[in-house]
Amino acid sequence: MKELFHRLQQRLNEIVVGQGAIAQGLVVALLAEGHVILEGVPGTAKTLLVKLLARLIAAEFRRIQLTPDVLPADILGTSIFDFNSRTFRLRKGPIFTQVLLADEINRTPPKTQAALLEAMEERQVTLDGTTLPLSGLFWTVATQNPLEFEGTYPLPEAQLDRFLFKLVVPYPEPTSERQMLENALGGFEARDLDQLNLEPLITVEQVLAARQQVRQVHVAPAVLEYLLALVQASRQHPELLLGASPRAAVGWLRATQAQAWLEDRAYVTPEDVKAIATPLLQHRLILKPEAQLDGTTLPQVIQGILAKVAVPR
Question: Which residues contact 161 (CB under 8 A, 6 or more apart)?
Fold first, then answer.
């Protein structure tokens, strides 16, 4: 089954050139059952990556374009009156899907953000007193633009903590961008994926089965202690106001298991723990004001923590 996920990554890299690290991060998060924030300037293929991934795993996909006037009911659903039967019937919202893309999540007000993120955390929605479970696969990817601040509502720390990873999508390298232009000359159109005649590589059932296999990956006591030491170091760091939460520690554990599983190992190594530290921590930690004034960045702090904590042998 692991070979199928390797082919999945390879196919994503063939279509969206130059974003291999982001594609890998998305696959790791999918296996670790963790939601993702994709942050990048417009035009860096954030939406395309998620749409492609949903197609390649044969998952139901919905996209929500979030704006200031989007209400919780627009996402979760509501009861509407049927004049023919003279009764209310439930109209489910787009959150009742398997892969959900919440585009520009920082453009919608806190009330709508909270409704979406509560459903992500609980994996269920309550409408008119009825609790409705979401899909067993249910996976959310949210996007945001880091450059625009006017008319936006930045996610508070408690909401950010519900995302496993924050993946920062860079501009492609010149060689990759040249390949992208050549693909466009050859007829590739990102808005028309049907032209690719994509055949699913994995089924939803196989994704769920792979998640169970990921949970069986062995974590040695020494590696577990190493992970805990890194979490504690983030909470005691002199330049940080806020360190990693217990939810972050659990997510870190699951993500290391997924990373090891993809590397075709039955055990987690310290390198697995280090490999995902930045995407797992960079949206959770908060710098002290004086550290910000000194020009310190969160990636620098994370690398400092990794360098300071002794690696088990």
Answer: 245, 247, 248, 284
